[in-house]
Amino acid sequence: MLPKAGVFAVAEGEVVAAHIAAAALGREAAERFDGRGFCYIETGAGRAAKGVGSFFDLPHPVTGSDPPDEAQYRDKLAWVEEWSSPRG
């Protein structure tokens, strides 16, 4: 299973934004989307696992995760807090 599509969309969006900014400034953009993403999988009882994936690996995408634990659940909560906070 690959990470959620939204993680890929955000990463691709950051690359697109860098390319637009570079074009507006008459520069060449160096940023490239590497096809990597992640998602947290909650397993209950305050535990989660972080699934990681690389979409462009050949001959097929590569995925993996560590066993669920409390530390990864805390990491997930921190990631959600950071991701959902207004940026300015």
Question: Could you give a quick summary of the protein structure above?
Answer:
Helices cover 40% and strands 24% of the residues. The chain is built from 2 helices and 3 strands. The protein has helices at 5-24, 70-84; strands at 36-44, 47-54, 62-65.
Walk me through what this model shows.
The protein is α+β, with helices and mostly antiparallel strands and 88 residues long. It has one domain. It contains two helices and three strands, in the order H-E-E-E-H. The longest helix is centred in the first third of the chain and has 20 residues, at 5-24. The protein starts with a helix and ends with a helix. The model has no long low-confidence stretch (mean pLDDT 89).
H-E order:
HEEEH
Tell me the structural class. Answer: alpha+beta
Poorly predicted runs of 5 or more residues: none
Number of E-type strands: 3
The assembly state of the depicted protein chains is single chain
Beta content: 15-25%
Number of helices: 2
Number of structural domains: 1
Note the overall shape. Answer: flat
Largest sheet features: 3 strands, antiparallel
Gap between N and C termini, in Å? Answer: 34 Å
Side-by-side strand order of the widest sheet: 1-2-3
Helix content: 25-40%
Q: Any idea what the radius of gyration is?
A: 16 Å
Arithmetic mean pLDDT? 89
